């Protein structure tokens, strides 16, 4: 069995276009020199982080360290849950050496320097985990789930333009803008009798405030309040999206006449079939049924 005082670090050397692999050794050595016990396992392909975290949890580890970006912490969370749901809350720290690192931005803009200070000091705070139930399984996340335009861009970029890097992402935006699908995703919030089947540009179900590193998509989200921050943008057109695109980065998009935000506990979907979703930066295609909150199910080092 593992020493429960040691961190189990999941290291993604490919994060940040290989930047993480180059910087991780020195960052981990710095923490070890400060007396932090860390055992490390590297990922080599998608899904390894989930497998490694699940195995480490079964072996007795209760403190985990995501060395990479948002995708690394997403995989760790899905290795810990649902197994940790009815047990003592595990702890997750971050060494943000990847690209996005959106979750940690709720607490700081100082990145790795802040993260190392937090780990050395041992400061922890309760964090909610959001659970998506879909036909065939469950997924867990700590950042956000989005459907509509952002998921369209992410899915298109992953499937057709990923080899082009950042230019591929811009191509995904341009093609999605040309298509601009505004459609309904029928749902009920907190058991309401009325079905919301209004057309929209996008919906996001957030635990924290940022996505894509700097996009302030849910400015009123609080990762420890036991609630889902639900942000809706109605059927905004191409010109409206272009004119208001900058507001997604300063958080003022929630003041748009077609925007709404609510803090809710549960969302139930009534969908005809699978849809593309972007979850903590990863693209998932599934028949979504429900999103709900596991209050304080995780401790984050922040």
Question: Can you give a write-up of this model?
Answer:
Strands 1, 2, 3, 4, 5, 6, 9, 14 and 17 form a nine-stranded mixed sheet that branches. This protein has a six-stranded antiparallel sheet with strand order 13-12-11-7-15-16, covered by helices on one side. Strands 8-10 form a two-stranded antiparallel sheet. Helix 2 crosses helix 3 and helix 5 packs across helix 6. By secondary structure, the chain is an alpha+beta fold.
Unreliable spans are none
Mean pLDDT: 93
Number of strands: 17
Could you give a short account of the major beta sheet?
Answer: 9 strands, mixed
- Contiguous helical run count: 8
Order of helices and strands: EHEHEHEHEEEHHEEEEEHHEEEEE
Query: What would you call the structural class?
Result: alpha+beta
Shape from CA axes?
Answer: globular
The Rg value, from CA coordinates, equals: 19 Å
Helicity range of the residues? Answer: 25-40%
Oligomer kind: single chain
Strand content: 25-35%
Measured between the Cα atoms of the first and last residue, the distance is 27 Å
């Amino acid at each position: 069995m593992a020493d429960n005082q040691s961190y189990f670090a999941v290291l993604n050397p490919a994060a940040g276009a290989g930047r993480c692999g180059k910087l991780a050794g020195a960052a981990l050595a710095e923490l070890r020199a400060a007396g932090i016990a860390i055992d490390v396992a590297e990922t080599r392909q998608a899904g390894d982080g989930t497998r490694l975290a699940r195995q480490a949890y079964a072996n007795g580890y209760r403190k985990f360290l995501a060395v990479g970006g948002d995708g690394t912490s997403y995989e760790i969370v899905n290795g810990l849950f649902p197994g940790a749901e009815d047990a003592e809350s595990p702890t997750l720290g971050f060494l943000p050496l990847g690209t996005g690192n959106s979750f940690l931005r709720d607490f700081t803009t100082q990145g790795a320097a802040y993260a190392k200070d937090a780990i050395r000091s041992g400061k922890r705070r309760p964090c909610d985990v959001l659970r998506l139930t879909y036909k065939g399984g469950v997924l867990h996340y700590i950042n956000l789930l989005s459907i509509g335009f952002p998921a369209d861009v992410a899915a298109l970029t992953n499937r057709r333009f990923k080899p082009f890097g950042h230019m591929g992402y811009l191509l995904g935006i341009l093609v999605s803008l040309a298509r601009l699908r505004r459609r309904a995703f029928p749902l009920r919030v907190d058991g309401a009798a009325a079905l919301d089947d209004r057309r929209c540009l996008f919906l996001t179900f957030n635990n924290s405030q940022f996505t894509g590193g700097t996009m302030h998509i849910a400015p009123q989200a609080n990762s420890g309040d036991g609630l889902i921050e639900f942000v809706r943008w109605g059927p905004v057109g191409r010109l409206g999206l272009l004119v208001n695109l900058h507001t997604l980065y300063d958080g003022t998009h929630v003041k748009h006449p077609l925007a709404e935000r609510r803090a809710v506990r549960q969302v139930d979907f009534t969908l005809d079939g699978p849809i593309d979703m972007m979850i903590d930066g990863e693209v998932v295609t599934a028949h979504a049924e429900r999103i709900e909150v596991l209050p304080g199910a995780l401790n984050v080092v922040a």
